[in-house]
Write a structure and sequence with these properties.
21 helices; about 450 residues; mainly alpha; two-stranded antiparallel ribbon; homotetramer; Fumarase C, Chain A, domain 2
Chain lengths: ~450, ~450, ~450, ~450
Amino acid sequence: MTFSALDSGLTGPLFASDAMRTVFSDRARVAAMLAAETALARAEGAAGLVPKGLAPALARIKPDDLDIAALGTRTRDTGVVAIPFVKALEALLPEKLGAHLHKGATSQDIVDTALVLQIADAISLIAADLIAILDGLATLTRKHRRSPCVGRTYGQHAAPVTFGYIAGTWMSGICDAAAELPALRQRTLVASLGGPVGTLAALGEAAEAVGEDFAAELGLAVAPVAWHTNRARMVAVGSWLATLIATLARMATDIVFMSATEIGEVGEAPAEGRGGSSAMPHKRNPLSSAVILSAGAAAPGFLVTLINAAASGQQRPAGLWQAEWHALPSLFGLASGALGEARRLAESLDVDPKRMRANLDMTGGLIFADAVSTALAGRVGRNAAQAMVAKAAAEVRATGEPLREVLLRDGAPAALLEHAFDLRPASAAAASAAGRALRQAVTVKRDLRKL
Amino acid sequence: MTFSALDSGLTGPLFASDAMRTVFSDRARVAAMLAAETALARAEGAAGLVPKGLAPALARIKPDDLDIAALGTRTRDTGVVAIPFVKALEALLPEKLGAHLHKGATSQDIVDTALVLQIADAISLIAADLIAILDGLATLTRKHRRSPCVGRTYGQHAAPVTFGYIAGTWMSGICDAAAELPALRQRTLVASLGGPVGTLAALGEAAEAVGEDFAAELGLAVAPVAWHTNRARMVAVGSWLATLIATLARMATDIVFMSATEIGEVGEAPAEGRGGSSAMPHKRNPLSSAVILSAGAAAPGFLVTLINAAASGQQRPAGLWQAEWHALPSLFGLASGALGEARRLAESLDVDPKRMRANLDMTGGLIFADAVSTALAGRVGRNAAQAMVAKAAAEVRATGEPLREVLLRDGAPAALLEHAFDLRPASAAAASAAGRALRQAVTVKRDLRKL
Amino acid sequence: MTFSALDSGLTGPLFASDAMRTVFSDRARVAAMLAAETALARAEGAAGLVPKGLAPALARIKPDDLDIAALGTRTRDTGVVAIPFVKALEALLPEKLGAHLHKGATSQDIVDTALVLQIADAISLIAADLIAILDGLATLTRKHRRSPCVGRTYGQHAAPVTFGYIAGTWMSGICDAAAELPALRQRTLVASLGGPVGTLAALGEAAEAVGEDFAAELGLAVAPVAWHTNRARMVAVGSWLATLIATLARMATDIVFMSATEIGEVGEAPAEGRGGSSAMPHKRNPLSSAVILSAGAAAPGFLVTLINAAASGQQRPAGLWQAEWHALPSLFGLASGALGEARRLAESLDVDPKRMRANLDMTGGLIFADAVSTALAGRVGRNAAQAMVAKAAAEVRATGEPLREVLLRDGAPAALLEHAFDLRPASAAAASAAGRALRQAVTVKRDLRKL
Amino acid sequence: MTFSALDSGLTGPLFASDAMRTVFSDRARVAAMLAAETALARAEGAAGLVPKGLAPALARIKPDDLDIAALGTRTRDTGVVAIPFVKALEALLPEKLGAHLHKGATSQDIVDTALVLQIADAISLIAADLIAILDGLATLTRKHRRSPCVGRTYGQHAAPVTFGYIAGTWMSGICDAAAELPALRQRTLVASLGGPVGTLAALGEAAEAVGEDFAAELGLAVAPVAWHTNRARMVAVGSWLATLIATLARMATDIVFMSATEIGEVGEAPAEGRGGSSAMPHKRNPLSSAVILSAGAAAPGFLVTLINAAASGQQRPAGLWQAEWHALPSLFGLASGALGEARRLAESLDVDPKRMRANLDMTGGLIFADAVSTALAGRVGRNAAQAMVAKAAAEVRATGEPLREVLLRDGAPAALLEHAFDLRPASAAAASAAGRALRQAVTVKRDLRKL
C-alpha cells in the first residue's frame, strides 16, 4: 500500500511524522466518523427526532469494532465510505436504534465533519512544531545577532549582514505564516450537516437547532449554508500548508547553500548514520534540508488538485469532491515531515562564525563596494561614484589588490573609506532588523500557544 | 505582443476588463514606480538625507516623459526595470538632485512597492464587481426563494430545492471569498524598502524612520523585516484570486448545465450577436460561463508559479522573484474577466420556473424518494424503508407509473405519502437556507463598501 | 498509513487497482532493488570485479527476508532506502561475499533501476486495460455507428451526429494516447548505473561493459550518460499518464452529462449496491465516471511535482529527486483506477437510442438549422441564409412551431428543406468518421499487443 | 497590455525573443487564419463546392487589411475571433464570392489550424536555437573534457569529475529533449477541419477529399477524427516545452552555484551593463541563468492549464478550449527566452580550470574518499573500509591534516593510496562519459537540421 511515499513503510518515516500519520490513519478517520454520528444522534435525540438511547449506544462502539478492509471493499461499490460505514454501525446497534441512525444526513456530512475533526488535531500538531521552531530560531537569531556574515544575492556576495539577521528573516517568514493560523483554524473548524441537497429538509423545522447542537457537540462552528460544494475553506487550508512549506524551504535552500563545502558557514548537526552516502563514507549530506525541499517541490501540485476540486457544481458534483482526498491529507503529511526537520535544524544547526568572517574577507573588500559607492555618491554624484567603484572592483578582481588600496590610489578620501569599510554600521542595521524579527516572534508564539 | 491571450488585441477584450488592463499597463507600472521614488525622496528629504528639492522635482516628472520601449531594451541587460528607470529619471533631473535619487534603495524596493500600489487599485476594482455580483445574486435569491427546482447530485435528480437556494449557494460561496478581502488587503498593502540586502544599512540610524515615512506617504504599512524573499503575501493574493475564480466557476458550471437544451431552466440573457456560432445561426452559447470556466481552468497554474517563486533563498535569489511577474498580474486579469461575466450573469440571467417545475415532475415522483424513505424509516426502519423505495423506484423506471401509486399499492400509508410528496417542506427548508445566505451577503457587502 | 486516498484501506480499493497496488507495494520495491543488486553482481562477476558466487547468493535472498519496517526506520536517517537495504543484504550474505556487494554503485542507481522495473510492470497492466477499453469502445462504436444522436457544443444542441461517432471520438482520443505507449516504454526502460557522480569511475575500464551487462540482465537499455539528474524520462511518463487520464476524463464528462436525468441517453450499468446514495435509495450515480473525474482533477498536480523535480542540479541535488517519489507512483495508481472504471464503462455502458432520437426531435427541428443554413447559403449567400435561419429559430423558440414549417412559410424551397431536414447525410458523415476511428483502433491495438 | 511579463514593453525583451514574439503576434495569427481560409477555399474550389475564384481573391487580402482592434471588440461578444474575422473577410470580398467563404467549417477549425501553423514556425526557431546550444556545449565539453572539477551532490564535494563531463551532462539532457522534437513536430502538425460537430457533414461525400486537400495545401497532416476536443497533442507540445525548460534550468542551476563568489568556477561572460545591480556597482549577477530559472519556475503552471483543458467534453466544451490560449503561446514565449539565454551561456561561459583545481584540493584529499574506500574494500571488506575512511575523514576535518597522511598512519597500504589519490582514473571515466555525450549530440543535431 504505497502509491505515496508518505504512506510507504520504507520511505514514510523519512517524509512524515508518526503523530501526523496517526491523525490521518484509517482508524482515526473511522473514529472521527463515529464521533460525528454520535454527535448527530445526540443533537437529534435532544430534538426528539430519534431515540435518546441512540447516542449512548453509538458512544459504546469503538473504532476497532469496525473492519476497515471490509469497509474498503464495499466503498469500491458505493463511492463513499459513509454508506458501508453506516450499514456497519447499524449492524452493531440494537435493531430499533439502528433504524434511526444518520437521520437526515448525507454521506458527505459525516465524511467532511470527520475530516474537519482530523484537521483540528493536525493543526494542534503543527502549532506545537511552529512554537518549537520559532524558539530555536529565536535562539539562533539572538546568539548571532551581531555575527558578521556575507549577504548574498544571485549567489554573489552583495553586502555584509549578520547571521542573526539571516536566521531572523527565516523566522519572520515563518511568523508571517504562523500568524495566519489562528484565523485559518477558526474559519475551517466548521461542521457539515446539510442532508442530500444541503437543505436538511428531512429534519423540518428542527433543522437549524439540530445543526447548531451537532456542531457544538463537536466543538465546531456552523456555516450559513451547507458547504458540500463550497470548498474554499479546504483550498485555504491547502494554500496555507503550501505556503508554510515554501517558507520552510527558504531556510532549507539557504542551509544547503551555506553548508556547501566551499562555503561551510553552517552545517546540519551530525548524528550517527545521518545523511550518509552509500558510496561516500566521508560525506555529511544536509538531509533535513533535502526532506524540506522535497516537500517544497511537491506541495504546489497538491494545491492544484484542491483548486481544481473547488469548482464543484450542483448540489454535489461527480468526482471533484473525491479529488480533494488525493491532496489535503498528503499536504498535512508533507508539512509534518518538513516541520519536524525544520525543528531539528532550528534547534541544532551548526554555525561557524569564523568561516563567515573568512568568507567576508575573501574578496579584498568588494563586500564594502555598496557602502563605498553610497558614501562617495554624496561627494561626486551617484553615477560618478558607481563608475569609480566599478572600475576599482575590476582592478581588484584582476590583481587581487584590496579595494581600499585601489580606491585610495584613485583619490578617494581616506576618512570616507575608513567609515565605509567599517563592518559595524552594516552589523548594526542587521541587528536592528533581527530585533524586529525577535519581537514579531514573541507575539506570534503567544497566539499560537492559545490554539 | 501577445503570448498571453489576456494581452492580445484579438482576445484580450474577451478575457479581461479594460479597467484592470489599465491598472497593469506598462504606463501604470511606470507611474507607480515614479510614485515610489517620489515618496522615498520625500521621506529621505525629511530625514535630511537628500535635498528637500528632490521630491518636488520628481513629482513634476510624468510617466509619459519616460520611453517604455527604451526602458525595455535596457531591462534586457539589467534584468530589472528599476535600473534603467532610475538612470532615465536621473537624466530628467537637475544634476545635483539626480545624484541623490534612489538613495539606499534597491531595485526590488521600487518594483515591489509599485506592484503593491497596483494591487491596491486592482482590489478596489474587484470589490466593486463583488458588490454588484452580490446585489444581483441577492435579487435572484430573493425572487426565486420559493421557486421549486430540482436539486441534483452527480447530474442526477436528488431532491427538491428552490432556485433561490441554488442562487444562494453561489452567493454564499462568493461571500466566503469576499469576506476575506479586507484582511487580505490590509495584509498585502505593505511597502518594500530594504536596500541591497534588506537591512537598509546605507541610511544608518535613520533607516526605520525613513521606512515608516516612505510607507505612510504611499498609504502602505511597514513589514517587520524586508520581504524581498518572503513572498507569502503574494501567494496569499494569488490563492485568494484563484479561489475567487473557482467560486465563480461553480456558478458557471451550474449555469452551463442548467441551460443545456434538455434542461433549459436558465439561459444567459440574449444580446445582439452574443454567444453566436460561425456555423449555427440558431445557437445561443453560454458565453459568459465559458469565459469564467476558461479562467477557472487557467488559474491553478498561475498559483503554482507563485508558490514555486515563494521558496526564494538568500537575500535575493536568481530568477524566482522574476517568475512572480509571469503569474500575479495574469491572475488579476483572469479575475477581472471572470468577475465581469459573473456580474452580467448575476444581473441578467434568464430563469424559467415553469421549466424547473416541469423537470421536477418528469420522473413520476422519484424526486420525493428521499422524503418518502425518511418518512417510512420512522415506521419500518431505515433499511426496510430504503429497500421498499428502491424497489418501487425500479418499478417506476420500468413502467413509468408514478412512485406514489406504486408505493400505495405496496402498502405505504396514504397519509404518510401525502406529506412526503408535498413540495412545501423542501421549499421551506431551501428558503430558510437562502435566507441565511441573504443575511450573510448583507454583512459582507457592508465590509466591502469600506474598502 | 493513509495520507493518500490511494493507499487507504478505506478508499484505496475505490481509486486504484489491486494489481497496480501490488506493482508499487513496498515488497515489490524491495524485490526490484534485489533484482538490481543481483544483476549488478552478475555483471561485475563476469567482469572479474567481484566473486562469481555473489550473484547466486543474492538470488537466493527473498524480499520477505528483509524487514521493511526496520529499513524504513533507518531510511529516516540515511535519506535513501538503498543504504540500509545494502547493509541488510550484507548481513544476509557470507562475510567475504557481502564486502563486494553494490561495488561502484550509488544508492540512486539501485533505487532508479528498481523504479524502472516497476514501471515496466505497470505499463504491461496499462496496456492490457487499454486493449480491453478499445475493444469495448469498438463494439459500442460499431453497434451505434448509425444511431442518430444530438451533437452538442457548450451544452447546447448543435447538429446531429451518431452515438457511434461519439464513442469513436472517445476511442480515437484513447488511441492517440495509446499509440505513444510503445515509444514511451522503450524510451523509459533504461537502467541506471553511474556510481556516486555518474562516471562509474570505481569500475575503471570495465565500466562500460558492466553497465551494458547490468542493463541487459534486466532487459533494460543503457543511457549515454547517467541520468541521476536528467529526469526528463520520468516527466515524459508522468505527462503521458496525465494525458491518458485526461483522455478518459473526456469520456467520463460526456457520460455524466448524457446520463443526467433530463437527458438519459446513456447510463452506467446497474450493479448490486453500486453508485448508491446513503440518503437517496432511488439514485444511480455515475460512479465509474466520478472515479475517473477525480483522477482527472488530481493528475495535473502530480505532473507539476515531476516537472519541478526535473530541474535537478549538480551530480545529485538536495531534495528534488525525492520529490519524484511523491508523484510518479501516485499517477500510476490514479491511472489504474481510471482505466479500470473506463473498462467497465466501455464494456457495459447502457445506451438508449430511443431517448437519443427523442432528444433530437425535441427542438422542433432546430438541430437541422446548420444544415438548412448551409443549404440556403448556396442560394442566397451566407449572411442572408444565417439571418433567415436565426429569425426562424427565434420564432420556433417563441411559438413551438416546427422550424421546417416556419421556413416554408418564409419562402424556403421545399426541396431544399427536404434534403436539409434529412438525418441521413449527418449520420453518414458521422458513420464515416466512426469508421476511421475503428480503423485507427485496429492498428493501435496490434501495437499494444506487442508490448 | 501587459498582464503577462512576456508581453510587457518593459519586461518582454528580457523574457522572450523578438522572433518568437513575431510568431505569436496578433498579426501573425490573423495571417495564419487567412492562410487557413485560403487553403479551405482552394480545396473546396477543387471539389467544385465553391467558386474557383474565391481562393485567389482571399490570397489577395493582406493581414493589414484587417483591423485587429475591431476584431477584438467583436470577439468579446462572439467568444471566438473567427466569427468577426470571417465577417470582416466577407466584407473585403466581392459579394458573390463572400457568400461561399468558410463553407462547412467551424470557427475552431480555422483557429486551431492557424495555431498549428504558428507552432510550426515556433518549432523552427527552437530547432535553430537548440543546434546553436548543442554546438556551444559540444565545444565546452570537448575543451574541458579532461579539466578536473569537483563532482557535487547535495552541495557537498563528492568525487572528482571533469568540467567537460558536467557540460556533457547538460548537453546530454538537452539532446534527450531535442531528440523528441522531430516526432513531436510530425505528430502536432495536423490540420483541423471538422465543421460544427466534427463530422464535416455539410460537405457530404466530398468531406474526406476536401479535408485532405486542405491539409496538404498547408503542409499539414490529417487526423483520423476531428480533434476539436482531443487536445492531447497540445498537452504533448506543452509538456515538451516544460521539459525542455527544466532541462535548461538544470544548467542554469549549476551555473548559479558554480559562479557563487566562494566557488568561482564559472562565470557568465561580462558584457557592458549586463547583470548589474542598482545598488552594487561591483556585482556581476548570473542574469542569463536567472532568466532561465524564472522560466523554469513558471513553466509547470502553464502545463497544468493545458492538462486541465484536455478533459474537454461534448463536441466542444464551454471554456476549456479557450483556457489553452492562456498557456500554450506563453510556454513558447518562456522557451524562447530561456533558449536565447542558454545559447549565450553555451557560447560564452567563462570557465576557470585553476579555480576548479583549487576547489578539488581544498579538502585535504577528502574528494578521494570514495576511491580510497572502494580500493580498501577489496582488501578489508566494504564495511571496514567505510569505517576506516569515515574515521580518517573526521580527523581530516578536525585537524586539517591531509587524508592520505592520516590513512597511511592508520596502516593503509601506500601503493593502494598512490592509485586511489590519482585524479587520472576519475578524469578518464568522466572523459569517457563526455565522449558519449558528444556522440549523442552529433546524431541529434543531424536530425534537428532536417526540421
